[in-house]
Amino acid sequence: MQNQQENPMAYVKLSSRYLCSISPKEAEKHLRYILNELGSLNSHAHVSRIDLCADFISPENMESWHREAWITRGKKIDTHVINGAFTGWSIGLGGKISCRLYNKLLEIQSSGRTDLVPLWQEAGWQENDPIWRVEFQLMREVLNEHGLISLDSVLANLNGLWSYASAEWLRLTIPNPDDQTRSRWPIHPLWGYISSIDWEGNGGPLSRSFKATRLPDDNRIFSLGASSLASYMAKHGMNDFDDDEGLDRYMLYLFKYFHERGFFMGLSALEYILEKVRLRAREFNTLLNCSEEEQKQLKVNQAAIDYQKASDGA
Questions:
Q1: Could you tell me the superkingdom of the organism this chain comes from (predicted)?
Q2: Which of 73, 163, 301, 309 is buried most deeply by CB count within 10 Å?
Q3: What is the tens place of the pLDDT at every residue in 229-281?
Q4: Pick from 186, 193, 229: which is nearest to 208 by CA?
């Protein structure tokens, strides 16, 4: 919170326990009421750090993959064990973005924090099910890079922050030993579900099928394509849509552009555009709507990977 002299009147850290019982906006309102007793507040609350987390249940063995499966801009990747039991992963600790994937049920058994249990039960949790938490911590530097300073602007862009953290800064993949270009490795199904969490909704269980509520209208897509083509033709003084001008020349140089962009990423032109398609598919919630047959094949592929690890003594 800042006063009219632009100097912070107070630095406040809101606990996750408190935010489980009240919304961030309500918490700010209560805090503003208290601080107004100490002075005049004419500015908005600024955010210096935000922690975004999601609790989930999964039969996935969180220890089943190696460090190489994590593709990240973070510098550190660590595993954690307590009394011989695997408790989770941490990526990028100490940096401007960090992530933790850990056994939350085990953690609250150690800390004695039981206020989460009723919330889990309300969401359908059964007592013997393990609960894992994925948590991203984003510092002020990251928020400022995205033009997010005030609390209102941060809360209005939670989906964007989650997407940036879970799709650009960090991805969990299924390594392909036959492909040395890690950017082409497929996203692990678990991470696909996690990265598609909608922070604008009211919460609830994650589903294997997602409504394509983020899909743009086809006419909007065609309009953007027509605008791009028209701009290219106008720039080069073209007025013939057929033959060697217009669309044909546009497509030729568009493919050349894909080739050049892909080259710097170690990808072919086709692989470059397919990577773009994959990212858009996750954004539009069309990537995860797999058929039962596709789900079975994913399990077969993962079983083959697990078998290979066991054979190699990993």
A1: Bacteria
A2: 163
A3: 888 888 888 887 766 677 888 888 888 888 888 776 677 888 778 777 776 67
A4: 193
